[in-house]
Request: fold
Amino acid sequence: MAKKRVLCFGDSLTWGYDPDNRVRFPEESRWPMVMQSILDDGYTVIEEGQNGRTIATDDPAEGEKNGLKYIGPCLESHSPLDVVIIMLGSNDCKRKYAYSSMDIAGEMQIMLEKILSYNRFRCNDGFKVILVSPPEIGESIKQSWLGDSFAYENAIKLTKELPDWYSQLATMYGCTFFDASKHVKASNSDSCHLDADNQRKLGQLLAEVVKSLPSVSS
Reply:
């Protein structure tokens, strides 16, 4: 039997950024690879995280970070797929974009439409989509080295509002919704990224979500 293929598309939270040492976590502490270890030999988990990735916005300072521009080639290069997990939105909370949570949700709506259009017309609705709202920016952002970039308290407000918007989008487009902020918390080191324990916890929880998808687990 062919292995089920799971694509994890996200930003530095998916890439596995270590907030303490500012390097990449080893595989055993990155949530997609933790998920791989739980799902075992019946699955292939594909890591597609990029530091600074936005949903659909060009970054004037950091270069090619626009997820909407890359998602099409990414889906094509990794086909066939059984599950696509999307966790984006944290970087869209940065000061330089000046977005509301509704704006960020609007970006995600465009991305979902692109993904689902590809799924319908190129893959015969062959894969399931899990939409994950990212962890909340922590209160310690006020002291974090990333605080100015994220406009301090404004980023906290935006990430608290995203789960409701993302849940509505998931319902609208028939995706599975997972609210990461209910289960994992950003590290006090920078208030944006997950420490190793929370990376592993997220991987464990999302592995269970993947296994619960009827057409994937069967």
Remarks:
- The first helix runs from residue 12 to 15.
- The longest strand covers residues 4-10.
- The chain has a mean pLDDT of 96.
